[in-house]
């Protein structure tokens, strides 16, 4: 099957059905045998989602009326992406994309005309796109406005970083090896990497590689995890003998990191509502030879699953807009709506209020999101503190990462190669 057609079908599923890019790709790539073809399809799909708003603006400039067929639109966007961003020869990009649309007979001439029309006046179309904010920044207008409102000084950098491919970060399992030893193993494999100084476990590879290329990955020596996410364990400060709750735990990266850092917990309970994602938590723990109590349940309804014993530490990785990880999931720019933010904020509040009674007196709750929007972050915590007299913030004092807010600390997308993340620590008096 034509790789460009496969990519077009994936893009169509995202645009038409609201399917996540990860899910649509996983389904589509089952039919692709060649590793090179898989990589090409993936590059097309991620690239089109990353630059969608710019490509869509240019497409609308090239045609007289909106296209009724999303598959044809997806094919043209794929063609434009190749011509602008990939090292595919222009004649090959045009002819192969036209050929990919052969099943839709009427569309072949249109695809050919649009792509050749772009090539004739490419500079002119690009200059026009640069003058329109949503096209120039390749983000929906509502998201640009929200980020600019919350972070006027950092907004441009955040939006630019969102459009870059993310680095590949690793977390070394210190129960198996040291970071220096693992860096040496990477050198022996000709994999260039650097340690992250403000973490004990973090490494960033110069270039992403398949996990099979990582030394002793199957043996649990290392995991793939963004550096910002790795900060959670140090902030949670779990001590020997403590009982720990990880809420909204899937896919389990932070769960595993807590156990690697403090193997002597009395118990770690991981809760998530998504059964399929909880299967991944179990798989990750088995690879790392770690044990936890896994519960598939609604975190907002602890009466259904809590045994009544308080927790000394709680990590609440709250459901959020994921606006801090757009570079990893560029389809967020296509699927997320402004109205989602208010709904997510309500859900965060419900879960936070439901979980707080489970925390022991003197215990600590770490609130985390992968969002850069204040509504989900410091505004949420300020509101919680104003309604809970037994809660007090434990400030995060560091000059190594993040920006202090009214409450908590915000990491901006791209800072020290990290994803956008927010943390706040609450102690029960």
Structure summarized in a few sentences:
This protein is an alpha/beta fold and 429 residues long. The protein contains 18 helices and 13 strands.
Task: Break the fold down into its secondary structure elements and pairings.
Blueprint: H1 3-17, H2 21-28, H3 35-50, H4 52-62, H5 70-85, H6 90-100, H7 107-120, H8 122-130, H9 133-137, H10 141-150, H11 155-162, E1 168-172, H12 179-188, E2 193-195, E3 202-205, E4 222-224, H13 227-236, E5 243-247, H14 253-261, E6 267-272, H15 275-288, E7 293-296, E8 311-317, H16 332-335, H17 338-355, E9 359-369, H18 378-387, E10 391-393, E11 403-404, E12 409-411, E13 421-428
Helix pairs in contact: 1-2, 1-3, 1-5, 3-5, 4-5, 4-8, 5-6, 5-7, 6-7, 10-11, 13-14
The amount of helix comes to: 40-55%
Q: Distance between termini?
A: 63 Å
Number of helices: 18
For the largest beta-sheet, the strand count, sense and barrel status come to: 9 strands, mixed
Estimate the strand proportion.
Answer: 5-15%
CATH architecture of the largest domain: 3-Layer(aba) Sandwich
The CATH class designation of the largest domain is Alpha Beta
Radius of gyration: 23 Å
The shape is globular
| Main structural class | alpha/beta
CATH fold node name of the largest domain: Rossmann fold
Overall number of strands: 13
Rounded mean pLDDT is: 97
The H-level CATH homologous superfamily of the largest domain, spelled out, is Vaccinia Virus protein VP39
The low-confidence parts are none
Indicate how many domains the architecture comprises: 3
């Amino acid at each position: 099957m034509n790789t460009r057609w496969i990519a077009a079908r994936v893009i169509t599923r995202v645009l038409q059905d609201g399917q996540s890019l990860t899910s649509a790709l996983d389904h589509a790539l089952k039919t692709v045998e060649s590793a090179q073809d898989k990589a090409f399809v993936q590059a097309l799909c991620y690239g089109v989602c990353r630059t969608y708003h710019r490509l869509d603006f240019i497409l609308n400039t090239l045609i007289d009326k909106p296209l009724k067929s999303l598959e044809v639109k997806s094919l043209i966007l794929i063609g434009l992406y190749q011509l602008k961003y990939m090292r595919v020869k222009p004649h090959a990009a045009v002819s192969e994309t036209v050929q990919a649309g052969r099943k839709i007979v009427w569309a072949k001439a249109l695809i050919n005309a649009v792509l050749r029309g772009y090539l004739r006046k490419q500079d002119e179309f690009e200059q026009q796109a640069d003058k329109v904010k949503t096209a120039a920044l390749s983000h929906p207008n509502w998201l640009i406005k929200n980020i600019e409102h919350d972070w006027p000084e950092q907004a441009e950098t955040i939006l630019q970083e969102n459009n870059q491919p993310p680095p590949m970060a690793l977390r070394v399992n210190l129960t198996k090896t040291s970071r220096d030893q693992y860096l040496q193993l990477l050198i022996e494999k000709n994999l260039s990497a650097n340690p992250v100084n403000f973490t004990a476990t973090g490494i960033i590879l110069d270039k992403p590689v398949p996990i099979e290329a990582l030394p002793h990955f199957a043996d649990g020596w290392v995991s793939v995890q963004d550096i910002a996410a790795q900060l959670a364990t140090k902030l949670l400060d779990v001590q020997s003998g403590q009982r720990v709750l990880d809420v909204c735990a899937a896919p389990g990266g932070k769960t595993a990191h807590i156990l690697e850092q403090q193997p002597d917990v009395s118990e770690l309970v991981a809760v998530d509502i998504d059964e399929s994602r909880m299967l991944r938590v179990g798989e990750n723990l088995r690879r790392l030879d770690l044990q936890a109590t896994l519960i598939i349940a609604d975190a907002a309804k602890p009466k259904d699953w809590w045994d009544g014993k308080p927790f000394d530490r709680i990590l609440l990785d709250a459901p959020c807009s994921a606006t801090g990880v757009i570079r990893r999931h560029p389809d967020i720019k296509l699927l997320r709506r402004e109205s989602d933010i208010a709904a997510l904020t309500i859900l965060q509040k419900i879960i936070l209020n439901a979980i707080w009674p489970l925390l022991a007196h003197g215990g600590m709750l770490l609130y985390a999101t992968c969002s850069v929007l204040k509504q989900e972050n410091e505004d949420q915590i300020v509101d919680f503190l104003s309604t809970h007299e037994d809660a007090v913030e434990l400030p995060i004092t560091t000059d190594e990462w993040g920006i202090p807010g009214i409450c908590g600390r915000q990491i901006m997308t791209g800072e020290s190669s990290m994803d956008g993340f927010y943390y706040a620590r609450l102690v029960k008096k």
